[in-house]
Design brief:
The complex is a heterodimer. Chain A has a 5-stranded antiparallel sheet with strand order 14-15-16-17-29. In chain A, strands 1-28-27-26 form a 4-stranded antiparallel sheet, with no helix packed on it. A 4-stranded antiparallel sheet of chain A has the order 2-3-4-5, with no helix packed on it. Chain A is of the alpha+beta class. In chain A, about 45% of the residues are buried. Helix content of chain A is about 20%, strand content about 35%. By secondary structure, chain B is mostly helical. Chain B is extended and about 170 Å long. The chains are: A alpha+beta, B mainly alpha. At the A-B interface, helix 2, strand 17 and helix 3 of A face helix 15, helix 42 and helix 43 of B. Chain A: Belongs to the WD repeat DCAF13/WDSOF1 family.
Amino acid sequence: MKVKALSRSSNDYVRERSQDLHKVQRNLNPTIHPFEQGREYVRALNTVKLERMFAKPFVGALNGHIDGVYSMAKHPTRLASMISGSGDGEIRVWDISDQRTTWSANAHNGIVQGVCAGATDTSRFLSCSQDKTVKIWDTNSGSDPIHTYVGKYAFMSLSHHRKDPLFATAGNSVDVWDESRSEPIHEFEWGADSYQSVKFNQVETNILASTGTDRTIVLYDLRTSQPISKVVMAMRTNAIAWNPIEAFTFAAANEDHNTYLFDMRNMESAHNVFKDHVSAVMDVDFAPTGQEIVTGSYDRTLRLYNINQGHSRDVYHTKRMQRIFSVQFSMDSKFVLSGSDDGNIRLWKANASEKLGVKDWRERHHLAYAASLKERFKHMDEIRKIDRHRPLPGDVRRADRMKKTILSSEKRKDENRRKHSKKYAEEKRIPERKKAIIGVAK
Amino acid sequence: MPPQRKGKKGNNNLPQKPKNNKNRKGKSVNDVFEADDDERSLKRKGHDLDEVDDYEYNAQDGVASEDDEEIDSDDAFNDSDEERFEHFKFSGSNKDKKSKKEEEEDNDEFSEKEINMDESDDGEEQQEDDDEEEEGEGYMDLSTMLEDDDNDTLHKDTVKALMQQQEDDDSDDEAIMSLDEEEEEESDNEDAIDDVKFIESLETKKRKRDETELAKKRQRQQERTEVYDENEFNLIARSSTKENKKLDMNDLMDTMENEGSFTTLRKSLLELDGKGKNVVKSALEAPVAKRLQDRADRQAAYKETTKEVSRWEATVNQNRQAEHLHFPLQNSSSSEGAGGRKKNITSATLASQFSAQTSMEQQIEQALSAAGMKDEELEEFEALQLNKLSVEEVQERRQELQMMRELMFRSEIKAKRLKKIKSKSYRKLQRKEKARQELQAAGIGHEVDHDMTADEQMKAAMSRAEERMTLKHKNTSQWAKRALARGQQDEGTREAILEQLRRGEELKKKVQGIHSDDEDDSGSDGSDTEDRDTIANDIRQLQNEMEEETQDTQQPKKGLLGMKFMQEAEKRKLAVTKAMVDDFEKEWLDEDKEEENVDSSNGKIVQNNPGRLSFGHVKAKASNPPKKSSDIQVELNDAGQIKKLAHSASHTTRTSGTVDIGKSALDAALDTSDNNVSPWLQQVESRVKGKKASKKHNTTKGKIEDKAELNIEKIKKSRKGAEEVDEVTLDLSQTLSKKKMTATVVADPATTTTTTTTTPTTTTTTITKETSSSNNKKKTTTTSVKASQLSDDDEDYSSDDNNTGMIHASNNKVAFQQKDLVARAFANDNVTQEFELEKAATIKEQGDQTEDLTLPGWGSWGGKGMKKKKNKVMKTTKGIDPLKRKDAKLMNVIINEKRNKKIEKYEITQVPYPFQTMEQYERSLRAPVGKEWNTRDTFQKATKPRVLTKLGTVINPLDAPFK
């Protein structure tokens, strides 16, 4: 007897769906995959082109401040929270993901020169102003400060200790305050009329650094009653950022258009010099990964640098963005914030062409492959050219060209001098890393 | 300022004040007072002398003791410091600097004339000291004392004793002293004008001081009556007392002396005073200027901070060099172990934690447990077994174990002891012993072990070579000479010498190779020599033939050949041939001779011997290439040139054609030469003769010439057979062709010869080609016949023994001229011409190109009488102007100026940064990373980004793991 079984493959009658998993059949036989180098080159080229095409770094602008944003601070634990202080004394706390203000207060009578999050309580933050006060705020307890500390002079900058209830202010001297006391517990002074900024080291938490109007960067240790070291530079340093994964390195945004990376153990020469800005660098911030920095400049652009390279990886600008006075990397190192003179805070992607949101496995691997191909062929002329191409505002471009001309003519002059004068020829060439450093005081 | 100091100050402030007020009254008084005071301080510091000594001392010079002052701890505070701290007020001192200066001047006034006691420095020092002393009037600074007199403890003791006394009634003493001093001051003040008097007074004062010291107790008793009744309610006010009584700590303490509850307080006060158990020892130094102090502090702090921060260095470096960084960093590391530190994984921990998880492990475990081999079971088993043993057995066992342990311990100790021996001779002996043992183990002393590794062989060979190089085994040492001179009476010496000789002999012996096959070698060797002999024979025969022919030519001939110019031409030709043959022969014989020489120098000929190779490698090499080159010389007629190359390659000093053949050698050769004649040659000869008879003269002559060349070929062939072993030859033709192909450099004969490279190829083929090409005018039939005959010539050669043609060698010496040789070598090699052609072609190719674009047949009619079309469509693509070429003026160079623009895109102009060379960079690009060419794992590994962050995760700064 013959039995006919009813057997049907679902493949025959079920329609193909997007969730279906298809096994990718591959044959690794090299003969059927010829010209590997050429093909990969083309892929790299396409990657670079696509990258440029999809490079849309601007995510959004947080508007609300009436005056320019002169100080900004990211929240150390909350990813989407950010504090900004403006020129009219207003402080706003932002929810970045919603791009809206969650808390605001007319905090000071002068420019809010510095804001920072309090380490002990997540809802607390501090602000300092030119009206000679430092105030501690709590976002939960309304728009009145919890504490007010009155100083003798206008405060220029503020930084909080990572763990302890201590904070440091910069003014005519660098003061360290205990939150529970109305008077500073340390007053550091070493030569400068006033101090521009102060920043606590986040890794080695006892150390802090300040920059003064006498073109110096001074290092302090809380355990001593005195500053510990000082480097004098050719021009003033506007801001400092400590590397969050390296205890002894910090970046200094300088007035001479460059940012310098220092090792605090040896400040005779900079570790790296980040060039490309065409005006004074106003603020600098390290990515939480410690691999990148972002700088905001007076030339209305912000630039992103890899800490191992001397030139910027990317440059961001918009038509309406004015002088940038504060920049911040977000705590997940995916975004960059810039506060500028025009009263807007702008949110940028740290990688201009990166797709936001969750990527599936294949996409991730494809992107990783593309990145590695780009890395591999980055020295090829064609690819390099496309990769480096950045449209810039005309004034920046002109300034850049002029700067280059000036520098090259200076260099040429120096070379000519060396060629024709014995005296000059014997002089040692000063490396770029040491040019801006006048000396280290002890 | 440390707190102790403050305490002291507090103690002394009260009683000090009145005195200082007093000091301000009169300067000279002050001065004297200070001098006095100074002496007192000296005493305290152990500089005081015995009674008698002191007298003597003072008699000599009262001031000398003051010079001793320099050994003070306060010495550090010198002139420069004085200047720096000009406006600084010492906490103890109540006078200001101005008065001090004045004092100094006074002092100088006093001392200038008679005594050079007071340099300004000293004066200052004194004053400083005085200040100190004043300050610490009431107590003794034990530490300074300790500092000063490490050498004279005796003094210290006496001072101590004194101190003990002082301690009891310090206040009284103080009162007395001040009184005394005041008196003295007054007197001095009066005498101030008279210097001599002053000095006297100084001296007397000194004496007086001593006296007062001695008479202290007496005086004290007297004074005590005048002192106040002391209690806490009756303190002496400074202003009211006329005797300037200093209020001392002891005064205050007296009242509480009896009460037990104040013991701790008393103790601490004593300590402050520099007595008791925990004495504050260091002298209080003058504070450094604030600026300097600050700097020092900063530097110290900076150093400390740097050190602390540097603890991160390892972490930082690790992160910097990491292939991949997963952020947040520390969350991942915390899973491994606290703060990124990995736990110490040892085999023991692994074993203890091990549990069978995979099926195989489980199976193994089951099997083990089934067999009762698990660790626990084994232990149990052992315990059981031990239980069964009797007491004696256990004891025995234990003793055995003990014994073993003891032995091990001893050997260990011995080894340690031996290790400590530093004697060089002992070490030497040890080394020798070890080497000998090794040798024995390897068996190299007598016969080569076949199982030796290559390394060992090499070592052995090296050691042997080294040994051979030394003179130890030769009887050249002083000892050996002496022993030989003495006649070796001693048996030991004789034996030693014999041993030495034996060793020398042994070393001189050749080493028999391990894998050498002697049969083959000897066979080839034999054939080689035989070949040579046959060649010599050939040459001889040729010469004979030529002689015959010359005789023939002398006979009258008919026709064209009979004409004079023809005959002369023939003669010339013959002469040339003869010369050629002679030359070749000479060359040949030279070589033979040379080889003989080489052989005789070596004593025994062992060729292709591995043992020999390792030592005499260079020699063997050196001997071989010239042979080859000489071969080529004849072949190509450019002997000199190639020979030169051979020179450069092998660095020998051999030159061609300069070796003279000794007559005796020739004679010896003659004896054996005529005996053996190659039958093949005879055959050839006869055949040639037969042909000669049938054919005309010119052809015969040509044939002879041809034959000469053929013979040469033969020789070469035979040579090839013999010398296939070392294949380093000069491949001229190949290099030439290479040059032609690349065609960038002209194949100028001179240049090519200098740049020719030695390549491991057989020259024979190329050379035959050339010879054949040079002889292409000859009849192909004859050559082919000869070639066929040549094919089986080896056997014929083998029958021949000796070089027969040597007779002619000595009398014909035609030296080759270099130029001639080169010209001959490249006789038919039109390299230059070819190159020129090629260059012209490239110039044309890269020049302007015109192309006719007219369509063929379009608008034109066929047939006869058609006009040529006028309006041709021509397209010219601009090329490189021949006159503007880079190689336009370089005759011998072609520079390719054509560029492939498509490739340009993929070319980079310089090596990118991290790479050192272009090769490195290219290597980095070579292996593809894509999925098509890699497995999934490799692909993922290769494309993994360096920095990995998680979306929406806060990356915190690092926390110190070591905090």
